[in-house]
Design brief:
Elements (H helix, E strand, L loop, with lengths): L20 H15 L2 H10 L4 H28 L5 H11 L14 H25 L3 H27 L8 H13 L4 H11 L8 H13 L4 H14 L7 H20 L13
Helix pairs in contact: 1-3, 1-8, 2-3, 3-6, 4-8, 5-6, 5-7, 5-10, 8-9, 9-11, 10-11
Bound molecules: fe (ii) ion (FE2) (2 copies).
Length: 279
């Protein structure tokens, strides 16, 4: 059962004058990705097919991720009445789909998969916290706070299972670090770029991973402050069995902060000057 529902949100308190167009663009993007999470649920249930307890947790996790998509969708449609979520979601799923047919984790093992999930939840937890802190629009601020809390619980869920399974499959620290870094690098892949394109592009625009991925990362990164990357570094250090205060842990924190700043400054930008409200 979810920790909160859409009916708890005071939707009529939305303040249009406080909507940041760049934040609207990344929220539309996040709505598509979150709403598509059932594919990941199917994939995880296949990989952990012998563990019914874990599967039942995954099914709750899918419901919560879908609710994130629904909340962001509803806010985006109130903020921009011309935003056609169904049409945009169809465009996204026509372009992007997970390979859900595999029997084994693409990370090489079940624990490798759990580390990757910890990294994803670290990213979403820190991202929604950064958005909530930067957001001036009160309804979206509350939604982001609630989602950030869920994402932290998701991290704890996958981390707990990783700890429980450590004796069954003991991955070396080096392997865990490589898996974590590999999953962080995947933020550059087509999923977010295609979601940004599907959510925001005009019909005549052609998809480009470089342009739309860059535009997505640039906007998302600019909301991060040092405290958010410190928190993300602490969580990724735990997932990869590195002491956060160690030399490796401190170096990782600096690298994550540098990566986020680089994305915010150096990535190619894409003007949404046609108006994010009517794309
Ligand atoms: Fe989520
Ligand atoms: Fe999550």
């Amino acid at each position: 059962m979810s920790r909160w529902t859409l009916s708890e949100i005071a939707w009529d308190q939305l303040e249009p004058a406080k909507i940041d167009p760049d934040m609207l663009a990344v929220i539309k993007t996040a709505a598509l990705v979150e709403y598509n999470s059932h594919d990941y649920g199917h994939y995880l249930n296949t990989i952990f097919k012998e563990d019914q307890e874990f599967q039942s947790k995954v099914n709750v996790w899918v419901k919560e991720e879908r609710q994130h998509g629904q909340a962001l969708e509803k806010w985006a449609m109130l903020a921009d009445p011309e935003f056609d979520f169904e049409k945009r979601f169809q465009t996204f799923t026509d372009m992007f789909s997970l390979k859900t047919g595999c029997e084994d984790s693409i990370r090489g093992s079940q624990n490798g998969e759990l580390i990757a999930r910890c990294i994803v939840e670290t990213g979403t937890s820190s991202y929604y916290t950064a958005l909530a802190d930067a957001c001036e629009e009160p309804v979206l601020k509350l939604i982001c706070q609630k989602i950030a809390a869920d994402e932290f619980c998701h991290f704890k869920l996958f981390y707990k299972y990783l700890q429980q399974r450590a004796e069954k499959e003991d991955l070396s620290r080096f392997r865990r670090i490589c898996l974590a870094l590999g999953r962080i690098k995947e933020t550059d892949d087509d999923e977010l770029a295609m979601a940004f394109y599907a959510a925001n592009a005009s019909p005549c625009e052609t998809y480009s991973r470089k342009i739309h991925g860059g535009a997505s990362l640039k906007r998302a990164s600019r909301y991060y402050k040092r405290k958010h990357t410190q928190r993300a570094a602490y969580m990724t250090a735990k997932a990869s069995a590195v002491a956060p205060q160690s030399f490796v842990g401190a170096l990782r924190e600096r690298l994550i902060y540098a990566y986020v700043r680089w994305n915010a400054v150096a990535k190619a930008d894409l003007s949404l000057s046609r108006g994010t409200r009517s794309l």
